[in-house]
Amino acid sequence: MDRQRRSQLAHADHPIAAPLTDESVARLLERAVADEADRALDLGCGGGAWLRRLLVRYPRMRAEGVDIHIAALEQAREGAEEAGVADRLVLHEMDASVFASAHRFDVVLSVGAAHAFGGLLPTLAAARELLAPGGHLLVGDGFWEREPDAAALSALGATWDDYADLATTVDRVTADGWTPVYGHVSTAGEWDDYEWSWTGSLSRWALDHRDEPDALDTYKAAAEHRTGWLHGYRGTLGFVTLVLRRSP
């Protein structure tokens, strides 16, 4: 099974591809969307869960989403049609790191997609070129809750310098010319719900489709991920979502 199909199955019960509850997502969007905002962009939009919520909540908004995976964009399109907001959504099949636009956006989102840009700071650089004056950037990325040990690094396929602690992460953001006007650190409960949903959805699919060629591999992938989380990075990898504005 290709990685994108597996991701779609894994997020069946948790459409937001990050350790955030619906309440946290709503609060972050509320802080990021100013009264006069009418245009939003999601860099690495995946299945479009953020944009769908934004368009439903703010009928004045128009939005664009960028992702390299056509299956994810099709999911975003179908979700927007079901929600009745497809007429206000434009989707682009391309690498988010090279996306360009003739106009700027009042809200730019990029949550859990820093890998597409090569890290958090390159993500900020890309967003800077697309954000309208006075606009808000909503960005989410990982950080080390505590010093990672070998088990955590192995489970994540990461190195120690892939992330920093929370204070250093925020310091890097502010040094790059941004001011946090709100932030949310995902709770242990949000992480657990995300991971149980991710592994549970995959396991359920595999058990319900035992005759499918990919069923056994999918079952094993879910079990390996669960082991890596529980025995590796649980309590070590954190996730912070920041609402940012350009500093003076």
TrEMBL record:
SUPFAM superfamilies in UniProt: S-adenosyl-L-methionine-dependent methyltransferases (SSF53335)
| Highest taxon above the source species | Bacteria
Keyword tags: Methyltransferase, Transferase
GO BP, sorted A to Z: methylation
One GO term in the molecular function aspect is: methyltransferase activity
Can you give the residue ranges of the Methyltransferase domain? 41-135
Q: What is this protein called?
A: Class I SAM-dependent methyltransferase
- Which organism does this record belong to? Streptomyces mordarskii
Upper classification of the organism:
Bacteria, Bacillati, Actinomycetota, Actinomycetes, Kitasatosporales
